[in-house]
Amino acid sequence: MIHDNCRCQDSCSCNHKPTKTPTDNRYAAKHPRRALCYCLAVFLLLAGITLLTLYLVYRPHKPHYNVASLTVLNLTTTTSAPPPSVSAAMQFTIITTNPNHRVSILYDRLSAYVSYHNQMITQPVALPPLFHEKHTRVEMAPVLGGAVGGGCGVCGGGGGGAVPVAPEVAYGLGMDEEYGEVGLSLVLLGKIRWKAAGITTRRYGIYVKCDVLIRLSKERVVAQVPFVAPPVCHVDV
């Protein structure tokens, strides 16, 4: 009997198999989820580094503007009959520079007008669409407030005629003309897009304001007028 009991105990111990507890199943289920989260975190990190690198390489800079010259064709203030008005015709030579080495600029719905003390004195003139190649300069010579002139690669014209203005604007402009120095502003409005590596961004609004201080002669000869100070252009995108 003693030997049978021992044999039975040995047999039972040999046939016994360990069973998995619920705790073991819970830990086993967590390991694939943890690995998936780890792979997702690594993917997001690499994607973020890639996007940051592309942004630093291709990040677009806004264009630069400069007024090279200005020809005053006409500048007449009328205060005799209400409302006061200004008749102006001017041709600006504008140089725009694309400072980006890897990004081109596309201009849409670009228009320009002249203002005096934030009061429009010429009607807005639509300029043709422009594709600005990377790291290049483009010269524009629009005629604002008068007929289109010749000999310009990219120019607009029209919008002639008297423009009604506030009485204080007409009076101030007349006084400045008598003094011989007039401060004007060239304003450009439109939409731009950046293009790099076959990708074109959405449209962004652009606002350019170039302040010029010019000297007018008493003879009012149609010619380029000298600048009292270098023109300053502010670009907002």
UniProtKB/TrEMBL annotation:
Top-rank taxon: Eukaryota
Compartments it resides in: Membrane
GO terms of biological process kind: defense response to other organism
A Gene Ontology term for the protein's cellular component: plasmodesma
Residue ranges of the TM segments: 35-58
Primary site of residence: membrane
Keyword list, A-Z: Membrane, Transmembrane, Transmembrane helix
Protein name as it appears in the record: Late embryogenesis abundant protein LEA-2 subgroup domain-containing protein
